[in-house]
Design a protein that fits this description.
Blueprint (H helix, E strand, L loop, with lengths): L13 H20 L6 H15 L4 E2 H8 L3 H13 L3 E5 L7 E5 L1 H21 L5 H17 L3
Antiparallel strand pairs: 1-3, 2-3
Helix pairs in contact: 1-5, 2-5
């Protein structure tokens, strides 16, 4: 039988370990967000819109895609759902008529604020196994990966 190119063990495969950790973390986030009836991608979008608003930055769908790293179709479908639910609205962009401005409604703002607290608590609990120094290293390594793999 011909052998594959797998790593010697699943403990030495960075990609598989990343997949496993991400799956565990996403499962906790998904469960926590069920109490506010929000998907994980919906959360990422409303939280990002809240962040942009707090920075006084007007945001388009393209900017959201670049910021969140979500694919275009996921962002498009999620925004349509959030708009139907009255959590976001789209307005004409006077600077660029091809792009719409996307912003939170008052209800969306309130949901974003409460869901950020929920997710921050999950993150705090999930990553509590790390010391402060390890968290900084962990984040630094992820930033390095993102910088080297821009897409």
């Amino acid at each position: 039988m011909k052998k594959s190119n797998f790593s010697k063990t699943d403990k030495t495969s960075s990609g598989f370990l990343l997949w496993q950790v991400t799956t565990l973390w996403q499962r906790e986030i998904k469960t926590a967000l069920e109490e506010v009836n929000l998907s994980h991608s919906g959360f990422v979008l409303v939280a990002s819109l809240l962040w942009f608003e707090e920075q006084d930055i007007v945001v388009s769908q393209t900017a959201l895609i670049e910021h969140t790293k979500l694919d275009k179709m996921t962002v498009s479908k999620s925004l349509k759902k959030l708009e139907r639910e009255g959590l976001v609205f789209r307005a004409e962009n006077e600077a660029d008529t091809r792009a719409k401005i996307i912003a939170l409604t008052d209800e969306g703002n309130a949901l974003a604020m409460s869901s950020v607290k929920i997710v921050e608590e999950v993150d705090k609990r999930f990553f509590s196994v790390f010391s402060q120094q390890e968290k900084e290293q962990f984040n630094g390594l992820f930033l390095k990966l993102m910088k080297e793999n821009k897409k």
